Amino acid sequence: MEQLSLDEKENIYHFNDDKLQKHALLTRTLVRTTLVRYTSSQLSPKSLEFKKNEFGKPELLWAKEKNWEPPSLQFNISHTPSLIACAVTSGAVIGIDIEEKQRKTRNNTLSFARRYFSPAEVQILEALTDPDVQQKEFIKLWTMKEAYVKALGRGFWAAPFRDFTIRFRATEGLQSSSQPCSPPYTLETVLETSSSLDKFARSWRFALFELANTHYGAICMEREDHVKDEQGLIRLKAWKTIPFLEDEFVSGTDAVIPISGLTTS
């Protein structure tokens, strides 16, 4: 608790359940200890300050320090009951989402998709006859759409899922509709009906991967003009971390398995 701000502590105490309190504490501590990695030991986790944009997305608020120029860090977090992910970049806006692979929807998968997904995405799911495959592809799509909305920083209601489509394009230029997320595919986002989002369509890169064999993870990252990567892959360095207890570099291991748009080399 000593690493957190007064507001963060108060938010944690609002949870009546001990497990939820511990999860919230670990989440906030992870964010702080992760971000200070990139300050060249100039700051402590406790000294970090945050603000929120008009849609509630957290952002760093740097205090003015003499003889030190703070890095242009962007970050985003996502969590499930069993896993927390914090993604950090230098300069490029980023969104991350993680979902349990065995996540179940309250309603029928297609009914849920028809409510939230674009018609093109529903059509792809309808073409999958195996219920297990259909459920997995639904979760992958949901994860990527969440990552995109979080990267925009505008919130679910400001960027409804139905207003844009995640399409999957084969690296060889072939279109796949039966297995949209099977490797080796690169991804493109097509924004169909919302003119307010249309200008962002070509500004993002996507990556899809598995985490710890239990979760799907997706990253949506602002495309940087100065970064030249012919394959358009997002380069990821990943650590398995328990703040102050464990810190293991896991890129290139079975803990992070790229599906599309990602390299851990």
Features:
6 helices; alpha+beta; two-stranded antiparallel ribbon; 265 residues; single chain; 4-stranded antiparallel beta sheet
Count of helical segments? 6
- Largest beta sheet: what is the strand line-up? 5-9-8-13
Q: How would the global form be characterised?
A: globular
For the record, give the distance between the C-alpha atoms at the N and C termini, rounded to a whole number.
36 Å
Number of strands: 14
How much strand content do the residues show? 25-35%
Look at the helices and sheets and give the structural class: alpha+beta
Q: Spell the H/E element sequence.
A: HHEEEEEHHHEEHEEEEEEE
Low-confidence stretches: 172-179
Radius of gyration, in Å, reads: 19 Å
Largest sheet entry:
4 strands, antiparallel
Average pLDDT for all residues: 84
Helical residues, percent: 25-40%
